[in-house]
Amino acid sequence: MNEPLQDAILNGLYDANYPGHELLSPKLLQNTKNDKIWLTLRQELLTCRNFTWAVAFITQDMLVPLKVVLADLAAKGIKGTIITGDYLAFNNPQVFHELMKIPNLTVKIAANNGFHAKGYLFEHDNWQTIVIGSANFTRAALLSNYEWALKVSSRENAALATQLASQLQQLQETSVPLTSQWLQAYEANWVKPESKLLPRVKQETLITPNQMQTAALKELKALVDAGQKRGLVVSATGTGKTYLGAFAVKDFAPRKFLYVVHREQIAKKALESFYQVIGGERSNYGLLTGHKHQLNCQYLFATVQTLSQPEMLTSLEQDEFDYILIDEAHRAAAPSYQRVFDHFTPKFWLGMTATPERMDDQDVYQLFDYNLAYEIRLRDALEEKMLAPFHYVGVEDYEVDGESIDETTNLRYLVAPKRVDYVLKQINYYGYCGNQARGLVFCSRQEEARELAQLFTAKGHAAIALTNEDSEARRAQVVKQLETGQIEYIVTVDLFNEGIDIPSLNQIVMLRNTQSSIVFIQQLGRGLRKYPGKDYVTVIDFIGNYKNNYLIPIALNQDSSRSQDKAREESTLPGLIDVSTINFSRIASEKILASLDQVKLDGLKELRQSYKDLQEKIGRPPLLFDFYQYGSTSPEVFANNHSLQHYGQFLSKMGETVELDKYENAVLSFVTKELLNGKRLHELRLLQLLLAKGQVNQEEYEQTLRRDYAYVDTAVLTSVEAILSLSFFDIKQGKTTKKAQYGDQALIMRSNLLDYCLSSQLQQALKANMTFKKLFVDVVKTGLLLNQKYDNQAQFTLYQQYDRKDVCRLLNWPKDVSAPMYGYRVDERETPIFITYQKDSAEKRNAVYHNTLEDGRSLRWYTRSPRHLDSDEVQRLLNSPQMKLHLFVKKSDAIGKQFFYLGEAEIQKETVKEELLGPKKKAAVGMNLLLKHPLEARMYELLFAK
Fold this sequence. Notes:
alpha/beta, 8-stranded mixed sheet, globular
């Protein structure tokens, strides 16, 4: 065995049979759905001791995520150099201004004519990594373009490294430092280059539906054609919701149309949008507000406050309008709107909202007969490029005497000069797109808003506070001041959560606790409208010691799964939505993870809310399949809840009538707890076939599995029978057995040597109780859908999670021996090894095993104690030629019972050594386990990064 770097280079450039290494092996980098060139550069930055980049073109839209990483590196004293230039005048002067803000970065300007290099060098402890290819440091090149870049590592004394060092040395010597004087001269002479990629196309004045609007219009037409009277469209802020409404009305061609909203300003803007789309005589469009009563117009735009007045409703016929659109429809449960609903009888009601989820428990979906015509959520809109991309940065809030801001912090600390200085420093560091800040600052209290605005202004950043005490006219005046550049910031509490649009916003600053995902997305959405010259929005979130910090990654990723594991991953790894990036500083990430450890996302209270939300959406009690189909709470969360045997029991707690006998309860508990997770297809597919046909030939079953690209052999077929006959669970558990708890009776039988059938008792239950059948079929159907993320050609899927019982089943063992297994079990041909990398407590017995990640590709692992080199199980491990070692790792016991599968491993024989461990100096055998599949960077960061 060579040392890791040598093996990695041989693996990549000579023979794939040499052990590879994710961080060291040569690799072709590309932008794919699951990986981006930027993620490799980021990983290299986080693990290097210094770096030098020679890159011709840099764009401002990629500097925000870079600054987050460099801020963390600055705290560790790590510095770097970027050599760039003025070739083709590509680099905007603003790029150089932003680079000069980074304290641990030296920037040099290449003197070479035609400087067009694209190379990234990272110095590590005893090796270097270079990334060279087509990718400049631009958002397009690092996140979306079709680019190639080759990543190669080498020793510092290697020929390639020496050649590269020589080139960089020459560049350094001939380059000049970036200074204010150089930048001033560059800025004075800079002319923005003309794009030569496409000829200029004359702007089209005709407004036409975009792709998602076209799909929504099709669904709305289908509703109308089907005779439905009401429909709801959910459309993220900034996705053209008003235009979509105008297109729908134009298609319907009403005799008379009514638009209803809660603010006059919105009604006026909507009138203009509808006029642009529908056209016709201007006199056909009118307002019904406190100031204008233009009731005879064909297209009437009303405020609900004026429309809902009893005398106004009396003056209008019930069938006055044949099409009524309720904008901001999440408000439609209010009494004023209800008076409008009660009075009019149009041919069609259309509701439109960005946030149908209500914080006051009102059912918006019910108001529109559960006809959800179309849904355009924030993530969809960003991926479809309907919105301006954002760079979210979560940074730690200012600390006072070692204490961070929390929900109870006194006002005098919130507006303390040192905190304000810190906030302004961070805002300046991360910057904004454009020549001037146009920012919206959300804080927690009205007094704080007013004082912050004064302090911002006093420190040279003109700001005005707006609260709900300010009139519409005052708000409009201040918004105009922001848009025209007279001020830089509006400071508010929650006044701008909805209804007000300032497309030119280029900064969102969050100086408050995240109270709900709904409000968070509303506030984020304020800055996402497209605007000329706005390439991105900077979102800076100051994260204190708030209990609700865990909501931040969940809201940003539009994650409603209630999976603790998924939320932990979202808090640790950088997120991407198309070219929008989600970045947390190291300390901010730690604060979020600490918050996540204190909350139970999958408690009954939370599941009850998820159930209620989905029930409101679909108009009936949801099944597990519905949670999967609508991207809501993960069905597995219900299965993993220890207080629930199965979903039918949860429905009973929700007030539904679910009548099941003891046997039916036990069977549902079995399929829910053991099969719903979809970690193996085989049992679920057999049950599905038997539900459909009653009896299935073994050959037909095997052919079906092969069509599913699932592996088939005698061992797995025997295992499937052991699971579905419950013999696998015939293991003592307390005073009984797990088999007894699951009904004690086999679910399937062999009607003869070749045919499978359901047991007579199960068949009878399925015929006699439709509720039981519905719940049973729901588990099978949902489990098959959940199986789609697994590779059915293998026992285990790389980087998926398994607990010890899953492993016993998937290894086709006849019995569940997970209880006494602990760290490993040496079987005849296969040995699963479970490693908890970080020990939570020195008191725990696994704390004596110091599992280190040796050289980034192998784990140091220890047998139980006492064990010696001549112990039987050690000898079997070392000398069984066909032995497969399966490696499962979790970061700590706080994560739960699930381990990530890192693939097969092999013992590095030269590392095997008998050692004395712990205070009692008990003998154990230690060895390095070499991963056969090089560890991916994201898994390294998730499991092993400090």
